[in-house]
Design brief:
The complex is a heterodimer of chains A (333) and B (504). Chain A has 333 residues and is mainly alpha-helical. Chain A has a single domain, classed as ABC transporter involved in vitamin B12 uptake, BtuC, CATH 1.10.3470. A two-stranded antiparallel sheet of chain A has the order 1-4. In chain A, strands 2-3 form a two-stranded antiparallel ribbon. Chain A is globular. The relative contact order of chain A is 0.19. The N terminus of chain A is likely disordered. With 504 residues, chain B is α/β, with parallel strands linked by helices. Chain B folds into three domains: 234 residues, P-loop containing nucleotide triphosphate hydrolases (Rossmann fold, 3-Layer(aba) Sandwich), CATH 3.40.50; 147 residues, Rossmann fold (3-Layer(aba) Sandwich), CATH 3.40.50.300; 79 residues, no CATH class. In chain B, the strands form four sheets. In chain B, strands 6-7-8-3-9-10 form a six-stranded mixed β-sheet, with helices on both faces. In chain B, strands 16-17-18-13-19-20 form a six-stranded mixed β-sheet, with helices on both faces. Chain B is globular and about 70 Å long. Classes of the chains: A mainly alpha (333), B alpha/beta (504). Chains A and B meet through helix 1, helix 10 and helix 11 of A and strand 2, helix 10, helix 11 and helix 15 of B.
Chain lengths: 333, 504
């Protein structure tokens, strides 16, 4: 830190900041910490149980949270844009109840599916209307609609389970190139959304809105339209995820996906998405979804009690958040 | 104006400060006497604010010592500074807007326990007394919210006095103030000096420094380059010391051919903000829009650009009446706006410089919606070269650049749009003198390319040097239109100051 060392920078100009080293660039990527944790978890879990490294077992375990993981991918984009949506799990329940109810009352399956999807979109549209049109904070709006949607699902379905027809059941058992179909869908959606977010103007503008919405508007970016699209996508993804869940479970109840919103937020956060917007990647959420599965299956094969598992997940999330923020704030100084 | 005592009141020796290994302040020795107003001058990034923050305990020096009345002191935090009688008055005071003035005044002073009674009556009386002492008329029972920035500064000063501060540091206090408010502030500053207190005054405005200060210290690139009584230095000396070279006198080289009317507004009105604004800007013409802060100039610009549209009146672009409700519509019509508040409305702080530059031209970097990195990179590189933006890498977050370079990047963003009408709102605010001259050259060149330019500025010399015509606003109305040949500081100022009987 001698005067001699600082001289070259001073010649480069006071306005110029020093060039960053490569490791620095990699280290401050939001998903780096997730990848490190994932590798650690795999190593640790395979030490705990020799059965762990059975890939098909991990894939089967993943089907249990694949539906949430799919929605979490879209949620990642919503959070990067500076908003949040806590209603998707309730949306899954309501849209799927509507779908199951229509189907059970004799509506042909394609129309029943359409009803479910339109319901999901409509719920997304209602969120969007209150957030964008009425300028209300999305966290409050979607806490409200999460309660509302779940309540409506309960009115429609009551306490009963609605059975699905036999042929509709078991999409998680269908294998695509040896991978359960829901997991395959998750991988494909990850790829598509990852490319959109990283490589298109739509994706670029999501980051810009999340970083500074006012500046985005001044730059001619249609902030409201982009947020509308995101909330609609969210509704659509929730409806699809709900039907995938119905197919896996074989029946539909109002409590389908109960508490799922927290798992989705957990995946996004664990993947390095910044809760106040502007930062995050699809890759991060993708890795985080696997991390959660590896950790929970690892703990199961190691015969840890479910109660302890929850504690471990909580600690994991806090560690990841502290680590990402620490690295990031170091990088900012 | 006392002479420095044998033992200076505050004495700094070898003060140095590094951030992330980069030295921003190097071995600064400085003595402050009791009862003097001492100006710190320098370009942005020269180290004057860093030095002030070290005095106030916000930053810790990497090396060096401070002493007060001959005793070495450790200013480890703003609270420690306060206990030693050192206070920093922020430009835009940090306060609790929903608490009353009186509550803000006594904030953080309570020595009582958490659950002890709040002495409301005593507090109010004491607060009112300290406002009276300052000679300002502020009702201490009203909330801070809604107070002008000048009044908020007064509350901060009153707070400093209430804790009997002997060293008061004012960091660019006058930037957001009107001339009358500046006079009041100066009156108070002089009185505090005469009571034997020491004031450190940071400003960019030479005329203010000359009017107020006894001595001046000039910083450049982290070094203290000179300390002298203000009378010993001419403006030319000061500028030379600040930028390390003589500044060429800016000469109006603007010789653009003036063409058709590009932008015309008629009777533009937004109730309560501005009324009946009519003017036009021709191709190749630079029209200034002067007036005091808060006169409604920025609001007119934002209305034309569709950020907050006007409710009445007509905007015509190239002679055709247009309806603009969103900035994107304005951009499509060839209008660009470089906003006043760079941090709030201009930059995406954490995003790369490159993405900041190309933000307004999605169609150029991604004709199909998919971003073509090579095109984006070359557009950004051209801009950086053309505007001489100083940076380490195009991938660097724009927030790491200096203010002037950030502003150049924002201007670059709008030049990529190739607008025919360019609205510049305070484009040189908070920018170094050297870079300012570059901006003036650029603005002149843009006009000679046939762009119609509306230049909003609070800096009189800027308006006089650059503009073909100067419009002046006061309290939401246009009060004057002055041709270049007749424009003078006095004429602009007299139209800018609000009067009871409105000028015709």
């Amino acid at each position: 830190m001698s005067a001699a060392e600082t001289t070259p920078q001073r010649i480069a100009g006071r306005g110029a900041a020093p060039q960053r080293s490569l490791w620095h660039v990699i280290l401050v990527r939001p998903e780096t910490m997730t990848l490190v944790l994932l590798v650690l978890a795999v190593i640790l879990a395979s030490q705990l149980s020799p059965f762990f490294l059975d890939i098909s077992y991990i894939l089967r375990s993943f089907t249990l949270s694949a539906e949430f993981a799919i929605v979490a991918l879209v949620l990642t984009m919503v959070i990067i844009a500076g908003e949040i949506d806590l209603s998707p799990a309730a949306n899954m329940a309501l849209s799927t109840c509507l779908f199951a109810w229509a189907q059970a009352s004799g509506v042909p399956m394609p129309i029943a599916i359409a009803i479910g999807l339109v319901a999901g979109l409509a719920m997304g549209a209602l969120n969007a209307f209150m957030v964008i049109g009425l300028q209300l904070p999305s966290i409050i709006v979607t806490i409200g609609t999460l309660t509302l949607y779940r309540g409506l699902a309960q009115i429609i379905a009551g306490d009963k389970s609605i059975r699905m027809p036999e042929w509709f059941i078991g999409i998680d058992k269908v294998l695509v190139f040896g991978v359960p179909a829901t997991v395959a869908i998750f991988v494909v959606v990850s790829l598509v959304l990852g490319l959109i977010l990283a490589g298109t103007i739509f994706g670029r503008q999501i980051y810009q809105i999340g970083t500074n919405e006012v500046a985005a508007r001044y730059a001619g970016i249609r902030t409201r339209r982009i947020k509308l699209i995101l909330f609609l996508l969210m509704g659509l993804a929730a409806a699809i995820a709900g039907m995938l869940t119905a197919s896996r479970l074989g029946s539909v109840r109002y409590d389908l996906g109960l508490g799922g919103e927290l798992q989705m937020v957990l995946m996004a956060m664990l993947g390095g998405t910044y809760i106040f917007g502007g930062r995050g990647t699809i890759l991060g959420t993708f890795l985080a979804a696997w991390l959660l599965v590896v950790v929970s299956t690892g703990m199961t094969v190691a015969n840890l009690l479910p109660a302890i598992q929850l504690t471990v997940l909580g600690v994991l999330l806090i560690v990841a958040i502290i680590a990402t923020n620490l690295i990031y704030s170091r990088a900012q100084r | 104006m006392k002479k420095a005592d044998a033992v200076p009141f505050v004495s700094a020796r070898g003060i140095s400060k590094s951030f992330a290994g980069i030295e921003v302040l190097r071995d600064v020795d400085l003595d402050l006497a009791k009862g003097e107003i001492h100006a710190l001058l320098g370009e942005n990034g020269a180290g004057k604010s860093t030095f002030a923050k070290i005095l106030a305990g916000i930053h810790l020096p990497t090396r060096g010592t401070l002493s007060l009345d001959g005793r070495t002191i450790e200013v480890s935090s703003p609270v420690a500074a306060q206990k030693l009688g050192i206070t920093l008055i922020h430009q835009e005071p940090i306060s609790f807007p929903d608490l009353s003035v009186a509550e803000n005044l006594v904030l953080g002073r309570s020595e009582d326990g958490w659950f002890s009674r709040v002495p409301w009556a005593e507090m109010t009386i004491e607060a009112q007394r300290s406002m009276d002492l300052l000679g300002v008329h502020i009702d201490v029972a009203r909330p801070m919210r809604g107070l002008s920035i000048a009044d908020q500064q007064m509350v901060e000063i009153a707070r400093a006095l209430a804790s009997d501060s002997r060293l008061i540091i004012m960091d660019e206090p006058t930037a957001p103030l009107t001339p009358r408010e500046v006079e009041t502030l100066f009156g108070i500053a002089r009185r505090l000096r005469d009571e034997g207190r020491t004031i450190v005054f940071i400003s960019h405005r030479l005329e203010e420094v000359r009017a107020l200060c006894d001595r001046v210290t000039i910083f450049r690139d982290g070094d203290k380059v000179a300390t002298d009584t203000i009378g010993n230095l001419s403006d030319v000396d000061i500028i030379r010391l600040m930028i390390g070279r003589p500044l060429k006198e800016y000469i109006h080289k603007h010789s653009a051919e003036i063409g058709e009317v590009a932008l015309e507004v008629q009777g533009l009105t937004l109730p309560g903000v501005f009324h009946d604004i009519s003017f036009s800007v021709r191709r190749g013409e630079i029209v200034g829009l002067g007036g005091l802060v808060g006169a409604g100039r920025t609001d007119v610009a934002r209305a034309i650009f569709g950020v907050v549209p006007a409710t009445g009146g007509v905007v015509k672009v190239d002679g055709k009446a247009v309806h603009i409700d969103e900035p994107e519509e304005a951009i499509a019509l060839g209008i660009a706006l470089v906003p006043e508040d760079r941090a709030a409305a201009g930059i995406f702080r954490t995003l790369p410089v490159e993405q900041n530059i190309t933000a307004a031209v999605p169609d150029r970097i991604a004709p199909t919606g998919v971003i073509r990195r090579a095109i984006e990179r070359s557009l950004a590189q051209d801009s950086v070269a053309k505007l001489r933006i100083r940076l380490a890498s195009l991938n660097q977050p724009i927030g790491e650049l200096s203010g002037g370079n950030q502003q150049k990047a924002i201007l670059a963003r709008w030049l990529l749009v190739d607008p025919s009408i360019l609205i510049l709102d305070e484009p040189t605010r908070g920018i170094d003198i050297g870079v300012k001259a570059e901006f003036y050259d650029m603005i002149g060149e843009l006009a000679s390319q046939g762009k119609a330019i509306l230049l909003i500025s609070s800096e009189m010399p800027e308006l006089l040097a650059l503009c073909d015509r100067v419009l002046v606003m006061a309290e939401g109305r246009l009060t004057a239109e002055i041709a270049r040949s007749e424009a003078s500081q006095e004429r602009i100022m007299s139209a800018a100051v609000p009067r009871v009987e409105a000028a015709a």
